[in-house]
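@channel sequence for tomorrow's demo:
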Amino acid sequence: MRRVLVDTNVLVSFLTDRDRGQQERAEELLASAADGKLELMVHQSVVFELAYVLLNLYGTSPAEVRGILVALTMLPGVRLIDELSWSEVLRIWPETFPDLADAALAAAYRDVHADAIATFDKKFIRRLNRAGLQPAW
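structure tokens (generated this afternoon):
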């Protein structure tokens, strides 16, 4: 089964109306996980970043964010992960991946043997390609 690590921006697009095209792609990804076509891995750093974005940029209440996070953890085909090699993060940050959160996802990709990273961040996609890591799209 294909294992896809998800970036925060995919979940934000899924939960908001900020970009309808991205929202549809995120919905397809989550539906594929629910149908057993892939395992969608959500790193704990993504959970923290998602909560921060919803609370501080979208004005979502803490109770609503908790409900969203509970629902996310219960979605079929979704697995929360916490594996992270800090030595790998610090090896690739900031030279290969200038954003620390992106470096953490890239390191987790290797740690959990993911097949791809789902992200809408074009700069991150270019850096993934240069590092020999597979973007989902």
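heads up for whoever presents: The chain has seven helices and four strands.
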